[in-house]
Design goal:
The chain is built from 14 helices and 11 strands. The two termini are 13 Å apart.
């Protein structure tokens, strides 16, 4: 069974619901990591990143996700703030850049894109045996990533207004030059040439700025899937992470069986991602197999069918089925935020709901460690 872990970027908000630049204070107070999740800085002081440990069981990963959120929130509370799992600030904000030489270089070179962008993503790392295996995975999971984005969509509000998108983070994030899908590589050599080619243009600083939907990690023996919004409900985060691991397992099995990657151009993947960001699980999407227009529900069922054997082998099939039903019933983070706004038409109610939902603990059996 493959190990997997996640990184969650969390927004820090004050008692009024506005983004609060207290991350440096939180990190100064953070205890040494002995055995548990950790926290680190991000480009803006209004956000903080949590990292789980590598895990084998989805239930254990879920507990680490919850513990990471509670660590960040406990640190935030001492400075009059809360940690919120929302992919963009629902209220107006002016970000404050973290003091760091690399970030200073990015601000100087990229202007408002670096200075003004504050988005919170969800990154899933899944263990691989080699870079060859990693590239084979990237080639075979790419057509499923728009559906993952739709499931995670958690940023309908920005700057005090409903954007009309389920994931406006997607729109903001794609101001960065290298964000988005890639074509099929076919080999490690082709992947390495691709990385060198982009860095050699001089447009990006280094490989750390290859903000691809998925990439082979240079820090860990993993593939890193980066397409998703941070999820409002920690159970949704665990559900998506379990699906990502199953996608990796399925891709490796296809690779060993000689199954070629789907010949879908990256331009079509960009269209599918844009649509997924617009409608989330509440609209129409390009079907991830036929590439004809279909309901989001049909796309999700195709994803479940594609990964079901791997999910069952990992002991995740039942919990993922429940998780997908929950996301589709509630509309995920985007649907829950809009429902909170609909009650009184107040953005502050949205932020209050987000803070509560970030840290709520379910009584159902989704929290049972398998």
């Amino acid at each position: 069974m493959r190990t997997f872990g996640v990184e969650e970027e969390l927004l820090l908000v004050d008692e009024r619901g506005a983004a609060s630049p207290v991350a440096p204070l939180l990190l100064a107070d953070a205890p040494p990591v002995i055995d548990g999740p950790s926290v680190s800085a991000e480009i803006q002081q209004e956000m903080i990143e949590t990292q789980t440990r590598p895990q084998l069981r989805t239930g254990e990963l879920l507990l680490d996700i919850i513990a990471g959120r509670e660590l960040a929130d406990g640190l935030a509370r001492t400075h009059g703030a809360r940690a919120a799992a929302v992919a963009m600030s629902p209220m107006r904000l002016r970000p404050h850049v973290t003091e760091d030489p690399r970030y200073a270089t990015m601000i100087e070179r990229y202007g408002l894109t670096a200075r003004g962008t504050l988005v919170c993503g969800f990154h899933v790392h899944v263990g691989i045996e080699s870079r060859e295996e990693g590239v084979a995975v990237l080639d075979r999971i790419r057509t499923w990533l728009p559906t993952l984005l739709a499931l995670s969509a958690n940023s309908p509000f920005f700057g005090g207004a409903d954007t009309g998108h389920a994931s406006y983070r997607f729109v903001a994030w794609h101001q960065w030059q290298s964000a988005g899908p890639t074509d099929v590589f076919g080999s490690v050599e082709a992947y390495d040439r691709f990385e060198r080619f982009l860095v050699d243009t001089g447009v990006i600083l280094d490989t750390g700025m290859l903000y691809l939907d998925a990439r082979v990690s240079r820090k860990h023996p993993t593939v890193e899937i980066r397409v998703a919004d941070v999820c409002l409900d920690p159970r949704d985060a665990a559900t998506i992470a379990a699906i990502v691991r199953a996608l990796v397992d399925t891709a490796v099995a296809e690779w060993h069986a000689g199954v070629a990657p789907a010949a879908v151009p990256s331009a079509a993947l960009r269209l599918a991602e844009w649509q997924a960001a617009l409608t989330g699980v509440a609209g129409m999407l390009p079907h991830p197999v036929t590439w004809r227009e279909a309901s989001a529900g049909e796309a999700v069922q195709a994803l479940l069918g594609h990964t079901s054997a791997a999910l069952e082998a990992n002991g995740d099939l039942a919990v993922v089925r429940r998780g997908l039903e929950r996301i589709q019933q509630t509309g995920g983070g985007a649907g829950r935020q809009r429902a909170a706004f609909a009650r009184r038409g107040r953005i502050r109610d949205v932020v209050a709901h987000v803070v509560t939902a970030t840290h709520e603990q379910s009584e159902d059996d989704d929290l049972v460690v398998a």
